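The following block was generated as part of the benchmark described in Methods. Ligand: (2S)-2-hydroxybutanedioic acid.
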Amino acid sequence: MTAATTVTVTGAAGQIGYALLFRIASGAMLGDRPVRLRLLEIPQAVGAAEGTAMELADAAFPLLESVDVFDDPSAAFDGTEFALLVGARPRTAGMERGDLLAANAGIFGPQGRAINDRASDAVRVLVVGNPANTNALIAAAHAPDVPAERFTAMTRLDHNRALAQLGAKLGVGVGRLSRMTVWGNHSSTQVPDPAHVLLDGEPVGFDPAWVAGEFAPTVATRGAAIIDARGASSAASAASAAIDHLHDWVLGTRDGDWVSVALPSRGEYDVPEGLVSSFPATSAGGEWRVVDGLELSPAVRTALDASVAELAAERDAVRALGLLP
Ligand code: NAD
Ligand code: LMR
């Protein structure tokens, strides 16, 4: 019997948490491995998280070994191998992600420190809570003993949204598409770039006017469109993207394909070192590797520079708030 893997999920009583936990417990994220779940909530929401824990037990997942609920980050991250940092306030209609900086950034320093001090040496972190890229930067900055590349932020939802739009445009299922890229920040400045997309392994080539005028804005504003339609921010699709991200990190990306992942830059594509930016990446052996050598169109280059400028401004804002060590 394989030893159980410890997974910590923050914001466990929230709407993403509710969609995410059952899929982790089912084996959708890590495959056929027993899982120990540790749920972190703020004290006021511990009761609701206990309710979710009761439902997880009632689902009788064969792979689910235990569920524990905490309101203390140090205890919640003790020995954890996978930390999914979801807990943060979502934006509501009319808010931009920048508005969340002050509200949410304060959560990620203490959690980064707790991960540094208590998590497994092999810990891998996915930040979902917004502004996800900058929250990942804050968490990593508070975890000097953990290699920076173990801190990632989620742009897989943007990637999946882009695939959905391309599939609809071409009238094909998304499973036939590969090599989509989203660059930059998980915000309305993100840069969905289908230039390298393959259909059944063959180049497609999309009309630049459609990409710039319809496709990219639709993908980049999809979060706001969901908030308008549902009256709440995306939840099940966000949870599904988190599952995809961790699944591929652990079990590898498909041969010949890549996915979009926000990673601390090592200077790739002239993104300043340390900013957590979305890149095309493959995964093998539990490590992400940025796809190198792609040619960026002038329009993509300009848009990526603007998104990176936004990331730099977010970093400067949290530094000014005293949230970076
Ligand atoms: P929600 O309000 O339903 O749930 C958030 C939960 O986090 C709440 O239960 C709250 O009590 C908890 N929480 C708050 N502070 C916490 C802390 N310090 N420690 C632990 N738990 C804490 O929100 P949601 O819809 O589940 O969204 C969660 C976050 O994910 C939001 O920031 C949202 O904007 C973001 N999000 C990101 C993406 C993405 O693609 N990266 C997609 C969708 C949503
Ligand atoms: C999304 O992309 O759906 C989330 O980041 C929620 C939001 O605020 O857009």
